[in-house]
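Sample 3 of the quickstart, ligand flavin-adenine dinucleotide:
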Amino acid sequence: MKLISRINQFPPLTDEERMVVDNVRKLCQDKLAPRAAKYDQTQEFPWENIKDINELGLNGIFIPEAYGGAGLSYAAYLSCVKEMAKACAATGLIWATNFHASKPIVDNGTDEQKARLLPIVLKGGIVAACITEPGAGSNATGMKTRLTPDGDDVIIDGSKIFITNGDVADLMLVYGKWSELGDGKNAMTAIMMEKNTPGMTVIRKEDKMGMRASSTCALAFEGCRVPRANLLCAPGEGLKMLLDLLNKSRPSVAAHALGIAECAFEDAVAYVNERKQGGRNVIDYQGVQFMLADMATDLAMCNAWLWYVTNLIEREGWNIGVEASMAKMRASDLAMRITTDAVQLHGGYGYCKDYRVERLMRDAKVTQIYEGTNQIHRQEIGRSFIAR
Ligand SMILES: Cc1cc2nc3c(=O)[nH]c(=O)nc-3n(C[C@H](O)[C@H](O)[C@H](O)COP(=O)(O)OP(=O)(O)OC[C@H]3O[C@@H](n4cnc5c(N)ncnc54)[C@H](O)[C@@H]3O)c2cc1C
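Result:
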């Protein structure tokens, strides 16, 4: 499809990065896409996909060369997320979470922490970011998890919910409040916790509507002893780190959502070109053409905005909160609309599991919810215009 292949020329990539993205696309088409329905149905963690991703060394994309990675651009990372989301959104979510949760080591870690922790990620480790709590979702600053200093260690006590990769992570980025600083947002602090730390238990694994092969867990931390050397920021400086992290993860959610949307659009176009009603191909009806026109135009515009934001980051750094929110909000709303329209264009078959659009519609929904619900993003974008 000319439009989609042109859209995929948007990202500002080097020749080497284009080759990497082509290899990822091939892996996704050959291996991840054919397995996606089975993983969605069984809700098993897609270890085969993770093994294939690690054989290509894909965690190395976001690890600097100085630490053994390939150190590719953010645009290259986003292009790979989009390809994975197109093939198996759940696997894309697992890999994107590796990026979100390990990027603070790259950006905030000391040389010693990078040398010690990044090799775990580089060799294919899975990483989780533990922020949300039973009483602190949209308002993450209300978190209650305590980080209590104890000699050379820090003790973690608290509970987290909806943690992607929570039951399989080799490393966990845990946010909590530094006990000596009280309960305000100025007490927020981040620390890395390694696998098998005594005191951490998986309380439950959610049975989800979509992204079913990615695990989403409620976790309890009871007296988890972690070396103080794993603190990623000074006590009380976690909020800034969290906002930085969200700036980086929002364009990633946008890329992920656009991958799902693009897949649904392609499936819809293929179906209406084949399906006949009243002696004509369904695509010959103007009502159907108008739907495709809106889907294609919004897809192109949203992609253009994503790559605009990526360019902005290259030029001006990460202070792009409003633009990142706009990308996340619009791309996820679009993914929901395009997948819903793709189901509609498949008629009754769209409602049946034999056709991929049924899964895509379920997968798309959460992109409007996580990394800040779209209500929160609308609020943040709107607030930015207050003059005082
Ligand atoms: C599949 C999945 C994976 C996830 N992965 C992770 C992860 O890896 N790590 C992690 O830490 N978290 C993760 N989350 C959690 C996710 O980020 C939260 O679910 C999200 O931030 C919303 O929080 P909440 O669920 O508590 O909803 P709530 O905050 O309780 O919101 C409920 C409703 O109220 C609305 N609302 C709340 N406050 C406002 C407001 N101020 N103005 C207007 N409307 C408002 C919301 O928009 C929403 O519609 C994941 C969630 C899911 C479903």
